[in-house]
Amino acid sequence: MPPHTNEHSGHSDSDLTLSLSGLALHSEAGAPHLGSNHRVSNGKKSRRSILTDSYLKTHNGNSFCETHRPLRPGIYAPTPAFFDPHTEDLDLPTIKSHSVRLVKAGIVGLVTQGSNGEAVHLSQSERRTVTAATRKALDDAGFSHVPVIVGCGAQSTRESIELCHDAMLSGGDYAMVLPPAYYRALYNGESQYEFFSDIANDSPIPILIYNYPGAVAGIDLDSDTITKLSKHPNIVGCKLTCGNTGKLARVANAAPSGFMTMGGSSDFTLQSLIAGGKGVIGGLANIAPKACAEVFNLYVEGRSEEAEKMQAVVARGDWGAIKGGVVGTKSCLQTYFGYGGFGRRPLPRPTPAQDAVYKEDFRELLLLEEFLENGCRDSGIHSDRIKEFPQLVELERMLV
């Protein structure tokens, strides 16, 4: 299969390849998107096609189409689902505007239905609505090349496959799947391998493995299992929120060329890249997309000292996001940007005192974000904050 190419980059392919310093430009491990006329070799329909045919009957006759949105090295954001603060209905205008804001700031792809997206609080129809709204917002804003990854994890193989079909029909390009955990005591390593293999066999879109022990009763896929799964032609990457950079290095260097091994938190972006990762899918990008993307950019440009200092500021900010989760993230967005609202019940609504703590947790990071948004000008250096944030001011001076 020919590699996907990065046709929409602002740089030429040759320039970007040189600047990436070893990061894979192409996602050639991924299988092509299969059309609804896909058949197995004996002339019978595959399970993938049978499921899709049943879906198409209830989705206005839509059909498969090949994606032209390859996964590029860089920073991806798992976007929140925003709600009306009174009714808890989906706030689609905010979902759309937030998505566009992130991409304009340098985020190369979005993830819907992740942990930040409160997928566990959404009905299946709401999941489709959020993904479709995100895709439409990007297309309308001139970002039709930006891929959308959709969380499709479920406790049964069958439901996860159905979610993959829903994701495709809603405009998603890739599916991201957590391992099942409810019957954890009955699963073994082979069960997890079969789970991902079966989904990949029948999903109409390529999938990424999502390793997040904190969300699945401590299940932590090892590097042997992920590397074995990376050989499947319809498994094109993984997100490692476990924070194990040793595992990331083993997978990145053993998986097929183009496999998107990505960290799962912005506080170890630089470590992920040094270990051979292609980028990060991190919730902090919702708050400070430019700062998160700039860690990647500085590393690619070979500016290691600035990258290290910026990673330190980002890591301090990410600690606030890690402690506060989606509640803290939305509180920060509401405080600093005037939108965000609250999570769906039973998530708690923060008290004024908690809002003040979240505001302080992100203060240094958002001063850096402001500096980057203003073009790294000498006049924008926060010299008046040098006693409070000396490392921030030092970094800003280096970036001018």
TrEMBL record:
Gene3D superfamilies: Aldolase class I. One of its GO terms (molecular function) is 4-hydroxy-tetrahydrodipicolinate synthase activity. Residues 29-48 are annotated as: Disordered. SUPFAM superfamilies: Aldolase. InterPro entries: Aldolase_TIM, DapA-like. PANTHER family: 4-HYDROXY-2-OXOGLUTARATE ALDOLASE, MITOCHONDRIAL-RELATED, DIHYDRODIPICOLINATE SYNTHASE. This is Dihydrodipicolinate synthase. It comes from Tuber borchii (White truffle).
